[in-house]
Amino acid sequence: MAAGANLSVTDLRRAARHPVDFPVIVEHFRHGDVNLHVSNLSAHGFMVDDAKQLSRGDRVMIRLPIVGRIEAYVIWTRDNRAGFQFERIIRLDDFVDIIDTLQPNPRLRRNR
Fold this sequence. Notes:
CATH architecture: Beta Barrel
Organism: Erythrobacter crassostreae
CATH class: Mainly Beta
CATH superfamily: predicted glycosyltransferase like domains
Radius of gyration: 13 Å
Domain PilZ: 12-89
Number of strands: 6
GO molecular function, one term: cyclic-di-GMP binding
Distance between the termini: 44 Å
Largest sheet: 6 strands, antiparallel, barrel
Number of domains: 1
Strand order of the largest sheet: 1-2-3-6-5-4
Helix content: under 10%
Structural class: mainly beta
Number of helices: 1
Pfam families: PilZ
Strand content: 35-45%
Protein name: PilZ domain-containing protein
CATH topology: Thrombin, subunit H
């Protein structure tokens, strides 16, 4: 198996991010179950703020409301933070439902 992620989606860090407060247990392909805290989310990926043991290219399986299990790859790390890219983009209607479920402040939710 090749090391690292070979992702087809280019740099999407400018995608709209939504702040969330979502503690989650992810399945890491080397470390097993890992507790993480997702602090923001987009249809393309997410950021965690407690990524001490993660490195660029690491793969995890995360379980999100609405869409269930989805694989993600570490794209960047800095200090205790890490940014992940999903292996596929979440459909817009599903993403809106996820944000409605996870958004800690309803005033931050997008108007429809």
